[in-house]
Amino acid sequence: MRFICDVMLGRLARYLRILGLDTVYIKNYQELINITQGAGPFCFFTKRTKNTPEGSIFIKADRIKEQMEEVMPIISPYIDKGLFLCRCLDCNTMLVDREKSEIEGHVPEFIYHRHDRFKVCPSCKKIYWGGTHLEHMETWIKSLLKDW
Length: 148
Ligand SMILES: [Zn+2]
Description:
The protein is an alpha/beta fold. The chain folds into 2 domains: 2-85 and 137-146, no CATH class; 96-129, no CATH class. Helix content is 32%, strand content 16%. It has 6 helices and 7 strands; from the N terminus they run βαβαββαβααββα. The chain has helices spanning 10-18, 29-36, 64-75, 100-103, 109-114, 138-146; strands at residues 2-5, 23-25, 42-46, 56-58, 96-98, 118-120, 127-129. It has a 4-stranded parallel β-sheet, covered by helices on one side. It has a 3-stranded antiparallel β-sheet with strand order 5-6-7. The chain is globular and about 50 Å long. The two termini are 18 Å apart.
């Protein structure tokens, strides 16, 4: 299952990626048509109320916490805890592990010394380490998932 978030739901897209879900963030309607044509099943989260394709789900909430609660019943069957933090938040690409030695010089020194495990996005080259993804929301994410 592929998830698509419209331009109003950028934060939601990032959170779905944290959970490992394949999530496309679109900026306009033409992108949606391009992505969904001939593709497999998808679920389109949107703030639009009109002219939405089949498979669209209107998101009522404006705040990310409530948005996550809204989508949880839909996304929970697709969540695989083994895929948490395995996807680039910016571009949705699956991350790859990198040796610490390869990272030296590419991240701030205090980060380099404080962390042992690093991942890199092969597409946009962004480097991730423990904490980057969670943005201090770890506790909240855990509590959200506990009920599912
Ligand atoms: Zn990336």
